[in-house]
User: Fold these one by one.
Assistant:
Number 1:
Amino acid sequence: MKEWMEAAEVSDFDRTNRKLVDFGGLQQIGLFKVDDEFYAISAYCTHQQVQMVHGYLDGHELMCPLHGARYDIRSGEALALPAMGPVKTFNVKIEDQKIFIEV
Amino acid sequence: MEDDMADIDTENKLVDNEYKYGFVSDVEVDEAPKGLNEDIIRFISEKKGEPEWMLEWRMKAYQWWLTKDEPRWALLDYPEIDYQDIRYYSAPKQMSERFKGEDGELDPEVKRAFEKLGIPVEEQERLQGVAVDAVFDSVSVATTHREVLEEHGIIFCSISEAMREHPDLVRKYLGSVVPYTDNFFASLNSAVFTDGSFAYIPPGVRCPVELSTYFRINAMDTGQFERTLIVADKGSYVSYLEGCTAPMRDTNQLHAAVVELIALDDAQIKYATIQNWYAGNAEGVGGIYNFVTKRGHCRGRNAKISWTQVEAGAAITWKYPSCILQGDGSTGEFYSVAITNNRMQADTGTKMIHIGNNTKSTIVSKGISADQSKNTYRGMVQIMPTAENCRNYSICDSMLVGSECSANTVPYIEAENSSAIVEHEATTSRINEDQLFYIRSRGIDEESAINLVVNGFCKEVFKQLPMEFAVEATKLLEMKLEGSIG
Amino acid sequence: MSTIDLAPERAVDTVVGPFDEEAFNACGKGEPSLLRAKREQGFHVYKNLPAPTSFDEEWRRTNPRLFPFADFRAGGALPRIEPDDPGEHDEDFDVVVNVGNDGYSINDRTGAIRGGQVMVLPLAEASESCADLIEPYLNGQALPSDWDKFVALNDAFWNFGLFIYVPPGVELEKGIHLKYSMSGDGNALVPQVLIVLGEQSQASILESMSSPDDASCLSIATKEIYLQPAARLTFVTNQEWGRGACQIANDMAMVDSDAQIDWITLNFGTGVSKLKLGCDVCGSGACAELDGLFFCNEKQHIDQKTLQIHSAPHTYSRLLYKGAVQDEGHSVYQGVIQARPGAVKVDAYQTNNNLVLSNGAKADTIPGLLIDADDLKCSHGATIGNLDPDQVFYMRSRGLAEVDARRLLMRGFYDEVADRIPYAWVRDQVHRHVDARLGV
């Protein structure tokens, strides 16, 4: 059952382009801002399940800092090995300067 | 001590069961100073006459490598490696101004070295049916059979040459299977590799000869970092052999290679290695450190990649030839015999990653440990959730010869799909006494009896090798086990 | 919701949840010095071991974040209370120990304790009334404090301690039932159980755990079992904690010469559990038979690591762990057979069979062999698959509905181990669990 949960405020992204959102348990989501659009993907790399939100962001490409797996944050698609498969994406909406993620 | 080692007489003093490749060739070399920094990388790139994009790639790899720690999770015990105490470039001087051996005169010492190893580098003496690319220290010195291959549109040359003659091909595929970010040794290799082989088989072509590369480390204090890239286009077939040896030295030398194989739709690559790097003496002094990343990508449907390896040397082996089975219907195979004796240590195995549907993988690993050596099989079979109807069958057996060695098996299996079938079995035991007794009762001496049993143990792997290699592998095993029984 | 530091945490912290210095100082007040010494040593080790993170190899497949340690209190020592009304199946046992949120009771049903056939008493009492007897087993020979962060935690913070002793030569007729029934009162349960069987003695013990599904419970347990020469123990763990429960357990048995342990572990409960269970056959002729069953469905995560350690020559161990995963269940099984130097003429076998019943469920299996001796035979096998479609087809062609065919095949799969369970009603429970999860 999906619901919209508050993740951050738009102003949080004034000085950064990303945030690690923690909804408890193993629900950690990477929230990114690229060219005024927001994208949300699972925080864990599909290679060895390490948290990769602090990896290198090049346009819409996120590279996991451990072994260099790359993902398109828009579709979750795996772009380079050792990413074994796509990473889960989440819908994002903005209401009243607050950012919500559908989980 | 160094003078002793360079003494040609050493060759003549070799005893039958000693490492017969342990000789040193007296060759004038062109070399970089020891140590690793951006200048050395520029030096290497320049020596090779590489395009700008290649130097950029090397630099990125070097920067990445600086941020990483050496992996120490394997069951291997060895002292710290001083990466600044290694020479990253050493080439036979006569070769350094030329980049191909074919047209120029080969340094006679180099030629003699290869002849002694049984590798013919002159066209007229070439091995029937085997094209050879010979690599001496960091440089490819000769490649045979080139006209035959050219007729079929097959490209087989050193990777440095490929970068100049076929840059688009190299740029498209290099690092796509083993990115420079993959692991510590792959990053190092990406920054400083000096040569290796490149092969491209065009669509529908069945390579008429076996391609092979023979690596020979000669200079002291150097590291050998070769990079091999083989691309089999749709519907093609190639069988590739790799051999390697090094002189006997007191110090350890580092060998960190990367091999990338790419098979497109319906293509097949067979890759066989007989690794016989110097393994150190009975006290564990000297020997090569062999840290290799080998990976095959079955990119297309029904692609097939087979790895066959006979690991008989190196003081330390860290090596996991793997297959990424992405194309539906693709197949990965891994056949391995790893034999360790004296104080050798091996941590080797494979990874089979099933991403596409109906993919299959087979793993047959045979380990033999003797004396005080340590032999570990480490493998991974992973079935992704969207991979339907995949099959894996693995068998990993270890044989212990002697009471002070150890054999470990650590297979990791992860399955996330309900239609997958994975079967794994492993047994570790002493050499079968009943079999020995039976053979000896037929009048055969103990050593021959043991060789017979060991051969039986390994035969499933040996039959994957081309005939001449199978014969060499059998002899190699015999040599390794000599004197270990008791 | 919180936004935390971007780079993933590396181990800096040593405190797990509520288990800090203050909680330690509240533990074990007025304990005999023998126990106090062990507790302090445990805390000393605990303080110096880092808290687990998913970067540790042990926790790579079971993220410590799955355990909500911070939601619990360390919990004071459970008081002893009078036995309650008899429970179901009590008549099958000589002694019934009931552990609940309010306290624990020891019911000497058949007078076996009074008659000296067995000793079942709290650790504190045992270290006073039979200090000489218990002392040799308090040095952590089976489970030293530094074995694992949670063994050290248990050594420091245990709030329920039990000592079970069967004197030499005694054959306990009906055995012991150690029964945990918890509800979610916010206190962590930290039991430490020490079982010793004297030479040539024989006993069977059933350990069961349950809690309501909606109750939030945490159990961090250790069990040390010592079998003296020629002793025989049949031990069944029936873990049926509710879905709201989390469990971390470390169990180890030392099996001396010619002794035998038959240990069956049933893991059907908890939302997330991590279990490490080992046997060291440390005397010539020792024998260990380890069996396990599990079923992870919905979002269950069960991580089991088994150790078959052979420290002596002429020893035997056999292990069979089987189970299924379904829905989003995730099971991790790691099995190690270790033959120490000098352990010759050893026979050790390990088999792990997994059924993956739906896509998205995950079974990880890591069978392992670490062999440092020769002249032995050790093997392991692991399989992952689904129910054999040919067999299902065959049954359906004989008129069985698909759901019944699957149920029968699952029954057959589980019965290989379930048939060895000595308690018929526990066997029935296994069948009921499997049927329920299959949706029958």
Note: Chain B has 13 helices and 24 strands.
Number 2:
Amino acid sequence: MSCEQSRGAILLLLYDELDPAEKHDVERHLATCDGCAALLAEERRLLALLARPVVEPAEDLLQRCRRDLAHSLAGGPMAVGALRAGARPGRARQAASRLRASLRLSPAFSMALLATGFLAGWMAMGNGLAVFSRLAGRALGGQDAEAGTTSVSALVADPKTDRVRVSYDTLRRSSLEGSADDPAIRRLLVSTVRDSPNAGLRLDAIDALRRRAGDLEVRAALVRAVQEDVNPGARLKAIDALEDRARHDPLVRAAVIAALLKDGNPGVRVRAMDVLSQARDPEVLPVFERLAREDPNDYVRMRSAEAADSLLGAARGEER
Amino acid sequence: MPPTDDRALIDEAQRGSAAAFEELVRRHDRSVLRLALGLLRSEEDARDVYQETFLRAYRSLGEFRGASSLRTWVLRIATNLCLDHLRRASSRPEEAGRARGTGGPGDGEADGPAGDPAMRLADDRPAHDPERTLASREARRRIAAALGGLPTRERLVFELRHYEGLRLREIGDILETSEETARNCLFRAHRDLRAALGDLRDPARGPAAGRNDPARAGT
């Protein structure tokens, strides 16, 4: 390879855009040519300077965008067009028109969004629970449809009868009672898991949903609890509730593996390990082996070594 | 977290699952917003692009067949919207300067990303050493100016390859051009960046590099 060819390929080498043969040729040239090696070093230095995006969206801007989108999809009063009406009337009208067109084009999906409390998740930073509860009110045949600000105030689950009582405030406190399979109750529970500032309520709601992880919305809320809930007890219970799904659902398994690797609470890590052990997925073996070497907690290291041995033993047994 | 496939979520969303659509948006919306902010230098325009991108995705999801990844598909929508914005801006004299970027004389920090309260320079964090912080801010300002001075197409290819990690082949698809043209844009972007930043040393750079850092690749 000539120096001219090498110079053309150095950037592609750094971006991993060369096929193996080209890469081999460039690397051989670089090993023997000081000039091209210096150019490689210079490009590396430049890329290191540029490693981080120079502009990173602020978190509050991202959250505002998500809320705007949720409103737009639901055709709410704060749809993007209305938000910008003061600044650029022409554009606002166009946006509103586009929005109406989009909602006309997919009425089934719009209904699905309303029916599944899509707004609840996206408005979590603001008054999501209030909006969610209004939607839930509509789902209950119109009762509380005009209610104002609301919040779930109490939750009682009876494991023997598998029934749940959810009390929530509208203009007056209301209650729903029935199975967590009831869509309206399930939505309230999901919104509680996701949005309630009260850790006790979140724990109870996770408990009540533990046999409903087959539902995608429930599963998404539980996965998010594993990833984001600030309360270790809630994270642990969410892992429990997802136990049966870890074997077959890659999203769940990924969340549990992430908890095993990153959760700051050793108890949560151990529970994640138990769930993954039961899933008997050979792909987690390297994770167990790594933790057996590196986890800062003695007990977690010991249990990881046991889990790795058990998984290896099971794999050998299947081979026989 | 280990990589997981969007496919299952797309299937669910195509069957009407709001939770699956929400999860897909959450997976990719930061990239869309970053791209729009980087190219348009305007919070308001970036918010418009974000909205329109996901409204279009929502309308068209039923037609998505997976010929590309969802991420590429969404970034294609966002890219086209950004280009539309830039075309419109260049036809409006009062905004043409902004659309050209911050590389020109008089383009102080107030016009660049650091001047916008909704954006921040990615490395603009407090540090223990004020001198180093100042030097770091200056380095980031120069990098922002150099990127802002690139022609739109080169800037776009660079952003998509360098920060969003798309392959040149995918970028060629997005821009409805060839991989070779995308590659040449990347070469030109690097040539210009090298010229603008050749003397710059990054005083704030630590030992760890970003996840998309190609400086870690290669030999």
Note: The longest helix of chain A spans residues 298-319.
Number 3:
Amino acid sequence: MAAEVVIDITKTFAGRTPIRARFHYSVDASTVLILFGPSGSGKTTVLRCIAGLELPEQGTVRFISRTWLDTSSKIRVSPQERRIGYMPQDYALFPTYSVLGNIAYGLGELSSVDRKKRVDELIDLFQLRGLEEAKPSELSGGQQQRVALARAVAPRPQLLLLDEPLSALDAATRLQLRGELRSLLKQLALPSMIVTHDWTEALTLGDVIAVMGNGQVLQIGLPQDVFSRPKNAEVAQIVGVETVVQGHVIEQAYGLATIRVNGMTLKALGSDAIGSSVFVCIRAEDVLLEKAGSGMTSARNHLVGKVSEIIPHGVMVQVKIECGFPLVAMVTRGAMEELSLTVGSPVIAAMKAGAVHLVPRT
Amino acid sequence: MNWTAIWITVKLAGLTAATLLVVGLPIAYWVSFSRWRWKFLIESVVALPLVLPPTVLGFYILVAIGPHSPLGRLYTDLVGSPLPFTFQGLLFASILYSLPFAVQPFATSFDQVDRKLIEASWTLGVSKLKTFFSLIVPLSTAGLVTGVVLSFAHTLGEFGVVLMVGGNIEGETRTVSIDIYDEVQALNYVGAAKTSFFLLAVSYFVLLLVYAVNRKVWAVWPQK
């Protein structure tokens, strides 16, 4: 039997949409699952049910070979016995303990020598040297986040649960820590589940993405699949980015990166290093369509392609274009008629370099 | 001044406060953390001594520990002497009488501990009991000090319950407040004034301590 995580829970809070989350996925040593969705979609509740901090009225939670919850046979494993690392949104560092005390808090089972060794390892890994005796209130947001993460992984949990790990940070720190967090998670070789509402975070960190809306898991799959091929309009609306394809940076000059995607080249704003692997993300409303052979524009990207599908969306029309990779554009009905677009007609898709978002995948 | 009465009073108040620290913690923990739907029924019972006339409370305690009740008979069988009109009986009554003065500040301070911290402790594999002592108690020290000091001070000044349950036995159950009453009855105003001033001074000092430790937990005056 493959190592699997199986979640099937029902949880109701008075006056709110009931949460009925059902999903399963296979895990290896470092699989990162993203619970992605708008606020109020029930992501945090699902995470808390998996941690054992909320008791669903009904359902099962299975992690690999262990059953943590099965209401039908009255199995309920306490949070203490689940061996998880859990980091809530505001970190919940213990105010009466120092950085050392916080990290060592869950290591009561170890001998004092082993405990000291483990804490020392983590102080190095999380770059907290020099802050050992500081109280949480004396730390910056980024430092607090590192202490909380170090504390959560200290007892070597078998699953790491992170609730909006980056949302409490300012924009600059968040950007920096996003990349660091991914390499750290891979380094820890520990399966994790991360709640986020930020699609760049989801794409940076996730191996598998579960999209949540109205208390349900609407779609689960690989990041580029979920973003590029949403199962229905609801998922499409939640993810909000219609085109996500994988590419490589082949050139880099003054913050303008050239990316190769399936033989096509694209210009994008970004200082990602040459050779690095990225997700290229383009919103449909940022794509301009031109008739093949027309004049120059200021847009840096002109992709020659063919219309593969036309889907009306009220006053707008979603046009799918095959230009080496599938690209989605959103134009008005009038524009489509002026350009006399039909399935199969040649077209040029243009977009500014600033509309091409790069999400690093290392 | 009646030093015997003062000693009995201080001993009674000290033992009451110490017992309430032990007994009050689990009750306050339950009051603060239980999600039981009918919790308010128990909360009201704990708060009863705040509103009941001491004579009513004293009467029920007297009946409960008297020779005709199962509790009283059990105690007599175990110890060999009855509980009413003894120091032990008085201690039992004082503990019940001061219960809300310990439990309420304890519970209030537990209420103020962020539940996320407690959950974080649980997910780190730390048991509920260990979480209580290594996380909740250090975060609630102000409330614990307040509860202990208030139950001490409250016991110092109790009168009705002492009279009902303890009687007025010199060297055994005659506390300061009863001694003052006796002095006034005997028209010994000087003696009464001395002892009264002593009680006033001690009470004021004890309350100073509470307010100095923390104004938030049991503030009577509005916060500035």
Note: Chain A is about 25% helix and 35% strand.
Number 4:
Amino acid sequence: MQWFLRIILIVLANFYAPTCGATVQGSEPPRPLEPGELVANLTSNEAGAKALSLESLRGRSGTVIAVRDTSCSDSLRLSGRIAELAEDPTLSGFAFILLDVSAKVASGFRPATTEGSLQTIASPTRALARSLGATSATEVFFIDRTGTLRYRGAVDSQDAAQGPPGSPVVNWLRNAVTAVQRGDEPSVTLTDARARCALHLQPDATARVSEVSYHNRVSRVIQNKCQICHRVGGLGPMPLEKFSQVFARRSVIEYMVKSGRMPPWAADKKVGHWANDRSLSEMEKRDLLNWIGAGAPEGNPADAPLVRKFVTDWTIGLPDHVVRSEPVSIPADGAIDYVFQDLPTSFNEDKWIKAVEIRPSQSQVVHHVLAYIEDASLPPIVRMGVAGILGAGGPGALGIVFPEGTSKRLPKGARIRLEIHYQPNGTAVQDRIEVGLRFADKPGAEIINLAAYSIDFTIPPYHPRYQVRSSHRFERSGRLLFLLPHMHVRGAAFRYDLQYPDGKTVPLLDVPRYNFNWQSTYIFKTQMKVPAGAKIIATAWYDNSKANPLNPDPSKAVRSGGETTDEMMIGFFDFVEDPPASGPAPKLSPKSAANQ
Amino acid sequence: MPLPLHTPSCFPFDMVRRGLLAGVSRRVLGLSVLSGLLAAGTAAAVTSFEPGDRLPDLTYSDIEGHVGRLSGLSGLRGLVLITRDTECPVSQRYVLRIAELAKTAGARGFNFAVLDVTPHSRTEAQAAAAMLPGIVSLFDPQATLAIRLRANSTAEAFLIDRAGMLRYRGAIDDQYGFDSHRAAPRQTWLRDALFALDQGQEPKVKRTEARGCALPQYSDSK
């Protein structure tokens, strides 16, 4: 009987206490390190030589590790570029390491050599490359002085073979290093280096932390994905800048992350790749939730990342011109309809805008702002206010710098119309919006904001899922730069598809749970090429039922209109037409811009 | 949405498991099992205070450091205690409503107090209390009192009569919630409960779910 009772109790104890003091360990296959992760101290153990710790080679400001394979000419060429960076006196605080994965081990093998400011680690077994999850012999890894991976990928855009031919070269690695050197965040943290000298290594898990704690992992996730709003002076409530704050809020963090409400990013991950994607990766989500489930251990403060600094001034740089709204009084409670303001401009010529930023003075009560260009010279679709977006402001929305060589035209004498959604937060305040503009030296390719929209629909009372569809046909080929679906409080879901001239249709963006309070722009990571004759198809779904908590009156039939209680169906997009085979591009005609 | 603060500890079961595996004596094993059963039983006994329950006369500390018992805060007709987290948007939006209710209900003998569970300092709590002049602000930076009340959410109201009986518990009204924000409330549960009691009647609605933010957690309990 004793042994029987013993077995029963063992089973019960294990069943009821699976998470007591659990150590967080992943059980799925290892995957490559992601920027923002702490890189464990890697050790090189090659050819029976003395073990070499990467930490012993770290620079006081950070470390660049570049993979090299002498059998690949591109890799050798890039090694020269790394050597140049190593010799740059402005980067003297950084260590530059070549990780040589060449298959042959020369006689007199030496695990590490130094030439000038450049160190080389010989790793013919490729163990270190596997630990890092290196994908090619042209890939670089930049690790800051806290051991955090800040950038991985190609040295620059030319080596990554990205961007249209003739595009300016973007020096991703150098930009990341100098950004961190200044105390800023790299604007690009991950690029694809697989275009040349691909390695086919199965990554292992030795480079990542095995037991997740706040300091060695969660702090980095919160920094990268949450603190832009959740910090003192940020747009969101509940600052998450210290362990004590994150620990106290773990319950609401868990709920918000599990339900997909936070970070606010509504796009289905299976469709599209976005430059401004602020969602958690699957790994970040898993580590964060597992950490909470394991009791939210603090860990060792020595594993903490650098404190993230946020730009409090203009993120686009000092504007060339600022347009200001009239002050708006926001009460302490209640709900406010959209506020519209028309801001005159006084330029005596057309202006070409290369960057725009919208800044409220009381961001804590501003949910989002859309800024439109209004001018008689623009196509009807723009004059109607159904297109012609200049920029958008909202949670986590920084200023927009348009791609190199493109700009938006602000006609001489045009107005900037602001559409502002305020939300009271318990304190009456007065807000004023500033629109900062930076001008291009020369126009370049014109970005036109257009839309697939509909104004001819009526949503029946109590309808839980009413569909409206519209489309826009492209007369000329070009590139899509961003998408912005727009509906009001009954909006439930939205989708963009691209239909090619041969009828093939590909999805561009799927927002299965649209939220009026969290409208986002979606900036293509790689501009989407569109052939002439293609169509963008926008589909919107509305919930006019009682189940919609934002629905002011399910018993009403709802038409298109400008009030919040009306509805809108607009699939905005920014588009740049390809230059014609010969001659300058014609100006956009009203017909080509009309909703078709 | 708000998660309950109190969940059974896994400690007794883990101790049992280790004891079994290490071949601990039967006596110790038996004590372990017993303590586990007692802990589980204790955890199951009190999960929530519901209307009709007599609340324990709990000790509080206010933002000035004064200590007292909840009964001492009651007015002639009763006390309304509302959880508050100044970092929670729902709590922020209800500030004016609380002030308004305190003024009208206060004239009828109902005192109001807010239970500040925000993870901030006493100085910050005092600054926050200035937004609700005339309303006692209890300082609960470890949410100890909130846990003992079995509170689930911010902006959760406990209407306690003079005898210490809970008469209404839940949302102030349905204007603001974690996922909702109306121009005006449709249901005014706390106001209606106060009016009913003032008229010597039972509130029609005694219990609703407060839909504020989950309360901050300061201990290791989940």
Note: The radius of gyration of chain B is 20 Å.
